[in-house]
Amino acid sequence: MALRVNIVSGDESWIYCYEPENKRQSAVWVFQGEEKPKKSSMVATFVSKAGRIATIPLNEQRTVTADCYTTICLPKVITELRKINPKRRIILHQDNASSHTAQKTRQYLTEENVELLDHPTYSPDPSPNDIVTFPKIKNRLRGRRFQSPEKAVGAFKNAVLDLPANEWNKCFENWFERMRMCINLRGEYFEKQ
């Protein structure tokens, strides 16, 4: 019988009300003493081979702390995964951001029986979010203007949900293949073949 595992990859990114093609296009006129409009919101997105697990708006966050990660992001992801299949083992892949590697985060994951798939330090090997979620979705939204960060995040979520299942499957298969190549070459750099 095949081992049933939920491998989930998570990361954070900024979502903008307007993603310009150059800096000049992002200029905004404001009167003296007037506040600049808020034009971005941070999101944490977690994906698996089957697709998006959760996209969590981090509206008031300028950075993601271990406290934010363990009280806002991870509980939502773990709850979603356990709704799908409560008996599956959960393996989480994340980069080495300080909020991801903090003792508080590691303790939380241990308490929730979530295993970590470590990301090698300074690894050039991008995660599924770096390959598909952020570049492809942001490119689809480029040139569109949103009235608020909340509307931009909503459009981002919808665009992620619209990605076909075979795209996620292909992304994870390519990621696994790159990891196998890296292991076979004992961590040496390799060109795409």
List the helices and strands and how they pair.
Layout (H helix, E strand, L loop, with lengths): L4 E12 L23 E9 L2 E8 L7 H19 L4 E5 L4 H4 L1 H9 L2 E4 L10 H14 L7 H14 L2 H20 L9
Parallel strand pairs: 1-4, 4-5
Antiparallel strand pairs: 1-2, 2-3
Helix pairs in contact: 1-3, 4-5
Q: Could you please describe the fold and organization of this structure?
A:
With 193 residues, the protein is α/β, with parallel strands linked by helices. The chain has a single domain, classed as Ribonuclease H-like superfamily/Ribonuclease H (Nucleotidyltransferase, domain 5, 2-Layer Sandwich), CATH 3.30.420.10. It is built from 6 helices and 5 strands; from the N terminus they run βββαβααβααα. The chain has helices at 66-84, 98-101, 103-111, 128-141, 149-162, 165-184, and strands spanning 5-16, 40-48, 51-58, 89-93, 114-117. A 5-stranded mixed sheet has the order 3-2-1-4-5, sandwiched between helices. α1 (66-84) packs parallel to α3 and α4 packs across α5 (149-162). It is globular, with a radius of gyration of 18 Å. 25% of the residues are buried.
